Amino acid sequence: GHNYKNSQFFSKADKLVTGDVIEITDISGKKLEYKVYNNYTADESDFSYATRATNGATEISLTTCTTNSKTRTVVWAKVD
What is the pTM of this model? Predict the structure, then answer.
């Protein structure tokens, strides 16, 4: 996602902490809740977050550039 640096979209991803809930609603209106379990800063060329082993858990990864655009914020969350 894009960090528009305007308090919208992914601009607050770096503020998420372990235990925070990310709620996603699909096009049918069904809501899924994902609980944050990791939030870290990675090098802009590090794409390993997208290929990690989840051991069958339903998970999401959120990623966006940081305000200096030289690193990225990566958030991992899973269905509890």
Answer: 0.81
**What pLDDT score was predicted for residue 30?**
94
CB 9 within 8 A of CB 25: no
d(CA 80, CA 77): 9
Task: Give 66: exposed, middle or buried? Use CB within 10 Å, 0-12, 13-18, 19+.
Answer: middle
22 vs 79: CA distance, rounded Å: 10
**Phi-psi group of 55: left, alpha or beta (phi > 0 → left; psi -120 to 50 → alpha; rest → beta):** left
Residue partners of 30: CB distance under 8 A and separation at least 6: none
